[in-house]
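Annex B. Sample input.
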Amino acid sequence: MAGYDYDLFVIGVGSGGVRAARMSAAYGARVATAEDRYMGGTCVNVGCIPKKLFVYASHFSEDYVDAQAYGWGPARPDFDWPRLLANKDREIERLNGIYRGLLDNAGVTHYEGRARIIDAHHVCVNEQTISTDKILIATGAWPSVPDFPGKEHVITSNEAFHLESLPQRVLVVGGGYIGVEFAGIYHGLGVESHLSYRGSLFLRGFDHDIRESVRDELTRRGIHLHFNSHVASVTRASDGSLTVDFEDGSELHTDVVLYATGRAPHVQDIGIENVAVQCRENGAIIVDEEYRTSVDNIFALGDVTDRLQLTPVAIAEAMAFASTQFRGERQIMDYQNVATAVFCQPNIGTVGLTEQEARAQYDVEVYRSRFRGLKNTLTGSAEQTMMKMIVDRASDRVLGVHMVGPEAGEIIQGMAVAIKSGATKAVFDATVGIHPTSAEEFVTMREPVAS
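Annex B, continued. Sample output.
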């Protein structure tokens, strides 16, 4: 609109915000963005990218051992934590530059600083008031730590990527993606690792066979799992070490306590109280299928809406938003059969319904396989790969595919295409496998397990 400085002002330049900004600009909109932390948001700086780099680093400890079974002599590598941090930081700095270049090349004006909404058509950045036809909130989510005595002594995943030294002992609290991933990372780097979860089995929401398989593999690796565990307090000694007291009266001595108990929508200090944008109890902004809030010209997408907190989902939402608002082509995001991976060790890959979800809606057949991968026949490792397929008996359509094993995320990405296209079990059966691979198991499963 000519009467405003911009057609769209995006608050937050994470994966969703950057994609929405540059695609809207490509469709002819005058776009501005603002960010007061770092270019690329959580994923690039304190999420997906550095976490995956840390997973790679931690896995080399097993690779060095496994190599001996394949004729390589024993190695005693000296792990250098500062070098890993420096290399990680250099890569993130490169990605920050790429994200900034994407905005510049698209003709987006970027403001360095905290953006606060003044009213439905005005934002303020560094005491400068800017007018805009539409506002898009893409501020993501932030680690959430409950209140308890000693809360000030714990860290979150944000700080975990910047520890000055590698601890000898660590307690990770939480049973979601981040918790199980960091427990594996620290263990692989030689740290005595403990994982505490309030329930009887972590990874709530995943297929039960996945949850049990990961529990068994983490235990086999030597990670100390504490279920039905509730932290009562954390105290710091004069030497810097921490004592964790649990509600059952037990205690644990450690060097670092990492809380990974969830992420809350990041709506603080952006001026949302100045407009009638409705939120859920946890702060998540309520939006319709076009990402419109209760204020007609204010939109929100990504983790701040707390739908599926996944980077590719935020990017897909941004594409749909830009197309609908500035290209004149209405797109509605499909949240069914979104694949995901957890980079614990071994990895999880999953797409579609869990067995429990499927049984509540369909008469199903379940196919499951557990086996030791070919690589481990020489190494002697007892690591088990688990693969599972859930099929609607009436239509033969595959409803869900789940895996725990090396490169599960890479394998499930291909499975997701098949599931999204409505593939049947007969299609899987008619597909010739690639031998010898673990992935071929998905096209050779013939006998369903007992109900």
